[in-house]
Design a protein that fits this description.
65% of the residues lie in helices and 3% in strands. It has one domain (17-158): N-utilizing Substance Protein B Homolog, Chain A. It is mainly α. A hairpin with a 2-residue loop joins β1 (54-55) and β2 (58-59).
Length: 159
């Protein structure tokens, strides 16, 4: 079993460094959740050994390392509050614990950015994490990400 979800196929499209940071953050959060990799170790792994590197025939894109680190450190620091926020926005009968680990990572990172990255417009955060979800999933998951982050967008920024 891989320690993180595979690098999503972004085709021949060159993604921005900020978008690459978001994809990396989701992979790192997944790895921390599933394998228990320590925060500082995951930062070093991605910054020194993944971003801009070729691994097993796949090239990881260059990433905005500062944004990557801000997102994963922020999610870890605020995870309890973020999880409560997400649970309140999920459809009735659903909890974060019932959701796929990659999807949890996408939602946690998205909610963190909505809460703390106020220089990034709400619509941009939502669109970026829908794109991240599309990179990892082929089903309804991107729609769920869109619905949850859209539901939280206005209220989280007001708080």
């Amino acid at each position: 079993m891989s320690s993180a979800p595979a690098t999503p196929d972004v085709g021949s499209t060159k993604i921005s460094a900020r978008s690459a940071a978001r994809i990396g953050a989701v992979q790192a959060l997944y790895q921390m959740d599933m394998v228990g990799t320590e925060l500082d170790d995951i930062v070093v792994e991605f910054v020194n050994h993944r971003f801009g590197q070729e691994i097993e025939g796949e090239t990881f894109p260059e990433a905005d390392e500062a944004h990557f680190e801000e997102v994963i450190r922020g999610v870890v620091r605020e995870q309890r509050d973020i999880d409560v926020t997400i649970n309140g926005a999920l459809a009735k009968g659903w909890t974060l614990a019932r959701i796929d680990a990659t999807m949890r990572a996408v939602l946690r990172a998205g909610v963190y950015e909505l809460r703390r990255c106020k220089d990034i417009p709400v619509k941009v955060v939502i669109n970026e994490y829908v794109d991240v979800a599309n990179a990892f999933f082929e089903g309804d998951e991107p729609g769920v990400v869109n619905a949850v982050l859209d539901r939280l967008g206005a209220t989280v920024r007001k708080a």
